[in-house]
Recover the amino acids of this structure.
């Protein structure tokens, strides 16, 4: 897999303040690359430098193997940016908005019309060509914002917090369209401080803090930083029936403790053995009252590494 | 210095020549002689290195000037202050005496010449005084430079010697250690093995004639060997420093000292299997903790400082956090950069946060990450 985007030693200073600190990363083709970090971690600054809105203090950015500073036009026509703040014109129709932005990217004539219709269709606004965004809901505006960024079919789509402040339905729609775009061959960079979203859709994730990447990998790799085990707590009616030995036979199970009508099992995180454990308990005629699985999530990873919450 | 004096004299002389030439004086030949004699006398002054001939020349020049002033033209008197200054400054360091002496002839100067004399004297004085200040400064700089050069030489020599000493002691310690080890093995194990060997030899001979005795001897040999093996194990175990204890104990000592010596409440906590931390990683953790603690003491205005070493699954996290005033905007100084560089040398990162108190987190990967 080749690198769609490669960043080397990227630094951005605003006076004394270092927003992005010597950051290096590579985004491979076909990835949904997640940028996870608290507000002010430097995500948007990085995005703005990738999309040539900001000049870097130091470092290089290559898009598809070409330096974006030296190939500005090439870079711009291959990147689609969905900015954090809506970038649509309220008093132009949805169609005009998309067509305008696609025109800026160099599309003309029939192709422009085709792609505009296609993009609107894609975000589910196919029936709103003539509607004005000022009458749209927050979610619809976001979707239109996406349509504006994808009409020119860029190789790399950057979405900067595209789900901030919208209803769950639109959010699901957007997450689904991210997946669809990915299936169609787009590489996507997705920034968010919503851990669940990133965990759900991203194939690889970088955790960013104070302008630095402090951890990078698949979500499994990131979780493995903290621990490679999970705790399973099963509430039961009576402890008499439980055969600890037979539970220990189940693959992945490391330790079993029984206390106060609770079976506490520590197991390898990557083994999915909850079914087997429950089946074994049922075979032992235990009466299960509750089941709780505690595995680390990205929030825990962030908290453990930085000592802070993502949403501080 | 000489250069300036000559320049000054030349300027004054040219002034006189110009004024007298324009004034169309009649005894041109005498004037020319006066110019030339003044010129030659004053050129001679800097040629002499010793004090007395210099004095003589200056005196002659002054006499010549006075003579010319009396006999030819009073204007010559403006050349006098320079000579006076030169003369006086050969003897006294204080500049104000020179100024005073330069003022003396003013009493004898004709009324008409007085302003120009005072002006010439004053300008000359200023020129020399300023010049002298600069010269003194320059000399001070030069002395300092010289002293620093000496220092540098001395220090680099000391450094070299120390390096050599370190190399030597490393070598000696290695030798001593090797010596100790071989002695120990010899004492503890050598004798036992020799004993076992003798018994085995004996057992081999007795094998045919007295099987019972032979097997008894063999049993003995086995027991001795076992014991010897156990001793080797013990020796090696005792000798191997327990790296975990080295690291965390050193940190604990540091934390305790911090608590005792400064008005700050320092705590250390640790979690996880500290065995996985290599000596190099301990060094980084220790150095970064020291650096962070120094920062806290210097700027933090904190009452508590907390050290934490946590071994996670693939990462070691070392945290130093205080409850001080923190920093809303972190400016990377040499300290933070140093911590980052140390961490980077082991593939790790440093997070510096000033939002709630000041905290420095060092993350170091270990084992088989990714």
């Amino acid at each position: 897999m080749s690198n769609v985007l490669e960043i080397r030693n990227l630094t951005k200073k605003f006076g004394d303040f270092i927003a992005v600190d010597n950051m290096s990363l590579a985004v491979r083709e076909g990835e949904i690359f997640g940028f996870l970090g608290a507000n002010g971690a430097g995500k948007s600054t990085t995005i703005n430098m990738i999309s040539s809105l900001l000049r870097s203090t130091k470092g290089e950015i290559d898009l598809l193997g070409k330096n974006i500073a030296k190939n500005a036009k090439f870079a711009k026509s291959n990147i689609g940016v969905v900015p954090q703040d809506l970038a649509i014109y309220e008093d132009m129709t949805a169609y005009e908005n998309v067509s305008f932005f696609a025109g800026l990217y160099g599309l003309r004539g029939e192709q422009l019309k085709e792609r505009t219709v296609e993009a609107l269709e894609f975000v589910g606004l196919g029936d709103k060509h003539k509607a004005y965004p000022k009458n749209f809901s927050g979610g619809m505006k976001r979707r239109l914002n996406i349509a504006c960024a994808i009409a020119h079919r860029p190789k790399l789509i950057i979405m900067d917090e595209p789900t901030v402040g919208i209803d769950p339905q639109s959010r699901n729609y957007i997450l689904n369209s991210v997946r669809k775009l990915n299936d169609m061959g787009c590489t996507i960079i997705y920034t968010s401080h919503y851990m669940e979203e990133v965990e759900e859709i991203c194939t690889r994730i970088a955790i960013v803090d104070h302008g630095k990447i402090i951890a990078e990998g698949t979500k499994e790799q990131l979780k493995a930083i903290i621990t490679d085990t999970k705790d399973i707590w099963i509430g039961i009616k009576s402890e008499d029936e439980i055969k600890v030995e037979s539970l220990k036979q189940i693959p992945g199970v490391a330790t079993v403790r029984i206390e106060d009508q609770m079976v506490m099992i520590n197991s390898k995180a990557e083994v999915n053995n909850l079914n087997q454990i429950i089946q074994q308990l049922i075979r032992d005629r235990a009466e299960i009252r509750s089941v709780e699985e505690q595995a680390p999530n990205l929030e825990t990873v962030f908290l453990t590494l930085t000592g802070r919450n993502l949403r501080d | 210095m000489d250069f300036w004096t000559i320049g000054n004299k030349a300027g004054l002389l040219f002034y006189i020549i110009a004024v007298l030439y324009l004034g169309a004086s009649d005894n041109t030949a005498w004037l020319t002689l006066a110019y030339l004699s003044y010129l030659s006398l004053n050129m001679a002054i800097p040629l002499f290195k010793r004090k007395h001939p210099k004095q003589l020349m200056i005196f002659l020049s002054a006499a010549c000037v006075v003579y010319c002033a009396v006999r030819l033209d009073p204007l010559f008197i403006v050349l006098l202050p320079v000579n006076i200054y030169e003369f006086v400054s050969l003897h006294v360091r204080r500049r104000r005496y020179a100024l005073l002496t330069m003022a003396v002839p003013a009493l004898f100067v004709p009324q008409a010449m007085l302003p120009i004399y005072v002006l010439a004297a004053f300008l000359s004085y200023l020129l020399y005084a300023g010049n002298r200040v600069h010269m003194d400064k320059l000399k001070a700089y030069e002395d300092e430079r010289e002293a620093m050069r000496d220092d540098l030489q001395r220090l680099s020599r000391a450094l070299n010697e120390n390096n050599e000493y370190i190399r030597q002691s490393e070598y000696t310690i290695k030798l001593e250690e090797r010596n100790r080890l071989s002695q120990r093995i010899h004492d503890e194990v050598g004798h036992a093995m020799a004993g076992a060997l003798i018994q085995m030899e004996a057992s081999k001979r007795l094998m045919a004639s007295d099987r019972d005795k032979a097997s008894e001897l063999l049993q003995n040999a086995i027991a001795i060997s076992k014991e010897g093996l156990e001793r080797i194990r013990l020796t090696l175990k005792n000798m191997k420093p327990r790296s975990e204890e080295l690291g965390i104990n050193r940190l604990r000592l540091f934390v305790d000292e911090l608590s005792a010596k400064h008005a700050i409440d320092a705590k250390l906590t640790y979690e996880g299997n500290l065995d996985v931390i290599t000596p190099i990683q301990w060094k980084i953790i220790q150095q970064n903790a020291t650096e962070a603690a120094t920062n806290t003491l210097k700027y933090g205005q904190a009452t508590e400082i907390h050290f934490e070493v946590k071994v996670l699954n693939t990462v070691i996290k070392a945290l130093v956090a205080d409850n001080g005033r923190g920093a809303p905007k972190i400016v990377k100084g040499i300290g933070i950069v140093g911590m980052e560089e140390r961490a980077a040398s082991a593939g790790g990162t440093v997070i510096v946060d000033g939002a709630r108190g000041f905290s420095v987190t060092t993350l170091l990967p270990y084992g088989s990450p990714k």
User: Anything to note?
Assistant: Residues 6 and 227 of chain A are 30 Å apart (CA to CA). Chain A touches chain B through 22 residues (CB under 8 Å). Chain A has two domains: 3-224, 229-295. The domain at 229-295 of chain A is CATH 3.30.70.100 (Alpha-Beta Plaits).
